[in-house]
Amino acid sequence: MTHASAISPDDIARLRAHHPDVLAAPLATRLRTWGMWLLFLAAFGWGLWWIDASPVRIWNGLSKLGFLIGLMFPPSDGGAFWDYVTGMVETLGMAFLGTLLAAAVALPLGILGAKNVVPNWLFHFSLRRVFDGFRGIDSLVWALIFVSAVGLGPFAGVLAIAMSDVMVLAKLYAESIENVDGKQVEGVRSAGANSVQTFSLAVFPQIFPVMLSHVLYFFESNVRSATILGIVGAGGIGLQLSDRIRINNWDEALFIILMILVTVALIDSASKQIRMRLINGGTAAKTSA
Amino acid sequence: MTMLANGSAAAGVADIRLNSFAEEYRRQQRTKRLWTLLFGALFAAACIGSAIVSEVDVGKLLTGLPKSWNYIYGTLPRIRLETFGADMAEWYWGINYWLRLLLETVLMGFLGTVLGAIVGLALCFPASRNLVESRLAYFISRRFLEFFRTVPGLVFALIFVIAFGLGPLPGVLALAIHTAGSLGKLFAEVNENIDPRPVEGVRAAGGNWLMCMSLGVIPQALPNYASYALLRFEINVHSATVMGVVGAGGIGQELYVAIRQFEYSDISAILLLLIALVSIIDLSCEAIRHRMIGPELQKAMPS
Fold first, then answer.
1. Is the minimum CB–CB distance between A44 and chain B shorter than 8 Å?
2. What's the domain count of chain B?
3. Are residues B18 and B126 in the same domain?
4. Mean of the pLDDT values across residues A98-118?
5. CATH number at residue B216
6. Which residues in chain B (1-30) have CB-CB distances under 8 A to chain A?
7. Is the ipTM of this complex over 0.90?
8. H helix runs in chain A, sequence order
9. pTM listed for this prediction
């Protein structure tokens, strides 16, 4: 503290007395912050008690988990490599068809849900609530339902994927239709086009790249969810995986998990590249126009 | 005479240029059409291929759709206006038990998010390119995060159920691992976009790496962390609803039993409860996120 301009403790005390709010939050704010933290910790502790996370149980579980992981190495295909490949192809096929079905069914719904297509407030609001409501049901629940409705097999998985995505896609479509540039719509309409022609010539070219990139993104995430639908009997690699886990063939289970990782990584990078090209192509067309 | 010759020569040049433009246009059209054709063929092949492996045939679809409709119709309860109260009570006969399971589902989502966020927070600093010197630490933490978020949560749940026993604990751990993977990546992206000056300031004042992180990085990144964690909480409540299918706690177990044993009206009752729960969680989290980001934005904007 040899420097001449250094702040002495007296200065700090004086400043604190003059501007109490700058150096410390007011008591009410501090109390509220502490209260929130306390509430948070209480909820956390109560939750740990509820799920019975006692140290003994966790310790025993971890040692058993270590044992299981030990059994997983080295991973082996158990001579059923081509069965797994078939399962994987089935998974990809389910994801592809499910996404396609959802994309097609969502189109009319999305058009109906757009504020600038159907300007009725009540209709718009209730349709949006339906879209949101369906999002709450996971694809695995749909798979359970379709397995008991149409029987075991990948077809139930296709329907489950389509069902869980259709409402979310419809919502995204509706939003992109609401965001179209009005000038092109006006231009086409002023040239004498009717509403169908306006949609196909002015609205659709604008929303198509956006829709396609949403659909690709959904395909990526559907490949991930399709890998587990087999657990409830809806086809794909998940059936083999859950079977191997149930009969304690851990090396084969790890092999399947690694296969899933590789496939998902491949699909992700391919789809990312296509989406990049789509977006870049879209902006390039826009700037040149 | 010379002028005319000049004119026709100019016209000839113009024709040649026009022709070359037309030629170029046609060539571009051709390549474009070729690409369209190629993509169309690929698409058709993918459609047919996946229809074959998914065992889809149109006949099955046509018989399957009315079957699905019958199924959905069958789940609807018979409610008459004159006995409305009694019918509702019969439809929701298990409401107390179901509400308890819903609470457990939300708790699982909460615990999974908190535990996952702690692990993700620990891993996100070495996984940010601008915060670590060592390429090895960066590489290893990135691969860990990738593994955590790519293996489906339900697969972790299947394994943990065997290691830790049935109940919500394995479900929470599975959610936490998946959350650590995705939140760690998102947190790292937040870290890579921070203002480097506070970090440099802390380092210039003699702070070590931990101090740089806790005093330079975390204060600026905290609102974004919290916003992502809340978003993840919504997703985790959603995933927690199906953990019960493999015996890992929550409402999923009850739904699984109802669907497997064809207790039709129970299915619709539980599904409606689920939809209500997810909607409430989504709406309230959205409100909190807006409030959380609101003052930060106001602070960031002068005047």
1. yes
2. 2
3. no
4. 86
5. 1.10.3720.10
6. none
7. no
8. 9-18, 20-23, 27-50, 55-72, 81-113, 121-135, 139-150, 154-178, 182-190, 195-198, 204-229, 237-246, 250-288
9. 0.80
